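[recover] target loaded
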């Protein structure tokens, strides 16, 4: 009797199951890592959101909010007499000019970081549902307290001779950063992702490895697995774009203009986009290498290795030499790209079968 063949239908089922689970865990791993590293960590959160201080749409939104709060609390008749302005509109223009100058200064950038560091505690309280938190969330939203910025504007107005600004009543100006109509769902999702942040990346790698080890045609399954990861990253990118629309609809324009809300969202998810693009690129490169290894392409590269190296190196050297003002980052990028291509050529040349020499 002949021995039964090793394997069988279960291999195909197991491979498909691993790839399906991989399609789910790979994007969740990216989201979970972002939630842990960017949202859960105060320093990284502040570092992420700090560039918004230089965004014109955010500057305009903050300037409008500060101007409205300050002018609304001024005693207009006394202010007109103090400034010698014939119309109340002159007061608003006077305040607005100083506010605009402030939001374009380094002082604003410093105050923005300080305000957001305090707001991060509200964000964590929103996502974790901490019952012991002293912070109160209004309308299920994270409010950025602009009090420190108001005080800085008041000091500027007083320094310019408008001493009435120093007698303003307490001004409580806020700006909505995040608003969620379903806090309970957001809390459950954040807790789950935070718990699985270290597990999901490892699980994704193990699922791909298991699929390759189980399969009879391992190289083909490796290509398929990498394409599954790449496809899941594309799906995650489209989901981020779709959720951007949902986010903009959830924040009333009266609280935060749509262009400023879009800038906030884009900055918050920026590093998630960087991560998914990196994973996408790596998956496509590995898939390409796995597909080429063992093909006639490898043999041809082995036979013509010298000319291929020259074809890669010469354009790179010329590109660097002909550039008038190459930056350090640009030069490093060119060198890294050239080295990566040469390494790929070397791997394929060594792994490919010997090319047949024409007789």
């Amino acid at each position: 009797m002949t021995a039964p063949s090793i394997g069988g239908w279960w291999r195909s089922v197991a491979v498909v199951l691993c790839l399906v689970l991989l399609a789910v865990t790979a994007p969740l791993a990216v989201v979970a890592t972002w939630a842990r590293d960017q949202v859960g960590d105060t320093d990284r959160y502040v570092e992420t959101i700090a560039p918004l201080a230089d965004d014109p749409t955010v500057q305009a939104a903050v300037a409008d909010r500060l101007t409205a709060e300050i002018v609304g609390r001024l005693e207009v008749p006394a202010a007109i007499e103090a400034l010698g302005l014939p119309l109340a509109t002159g007061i608003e223009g006077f305040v607005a000019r100083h506010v605009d100058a402030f939001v374009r200064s380094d002082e604003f950038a410093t105050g923005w970081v300080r305000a957001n560091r305090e707001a991060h505690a509200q964000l964590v309280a929103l996502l974790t549902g901490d019952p012991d938190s002293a912070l109160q969330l209004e309308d299920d939203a994270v409010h950025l307290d602009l009090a420190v910025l108001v005080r800085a504007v008041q000091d500027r107005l007083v320094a310019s001779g408008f001493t009435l600004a120093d007698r303003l009543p307490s001004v409580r100006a806020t700006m909505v950063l995040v608003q969620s109509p379903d806090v309970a769902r957001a809390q459950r999702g954040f807790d789950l992702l935070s718990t699985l942040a270290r597990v999901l990346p490892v699980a994704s790698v193990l699922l791909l490895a298991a699929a390759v080890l189980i399969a009879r045609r391992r190289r083909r399954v490796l290509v398929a697995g990498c394409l599954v990861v790449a496809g899941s990253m594309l799906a995650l990118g489209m989901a981020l774009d779709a959720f951007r629309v949902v986010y903009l609809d959830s924040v009333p324009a009266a609280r935060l203009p749509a262009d400023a809300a879009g800038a906030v969202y884009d900055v918050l998810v920026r590093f998630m986009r960087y991560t998914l693009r990196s994973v996408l690129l790596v998956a496509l490169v590995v898939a390409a290498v796995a597909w080429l290894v063992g093909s006639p392409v490898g043999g041809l590269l082995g036979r013509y290795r010298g000319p291929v190296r020259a074809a890669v190196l010469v354009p790179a050297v010329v590109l660097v030499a002909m550039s008038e003002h190459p930056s350090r980052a640009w030069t490093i990028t060119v060198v890294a790209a050239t080295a990566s291509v040469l390494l790929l050529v070397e791997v394929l040349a060594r792994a490919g079968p010997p090319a047949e020499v024409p007789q």
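[recover] notes: Confidence is low (pLDDT under 50) at residues 1-6.
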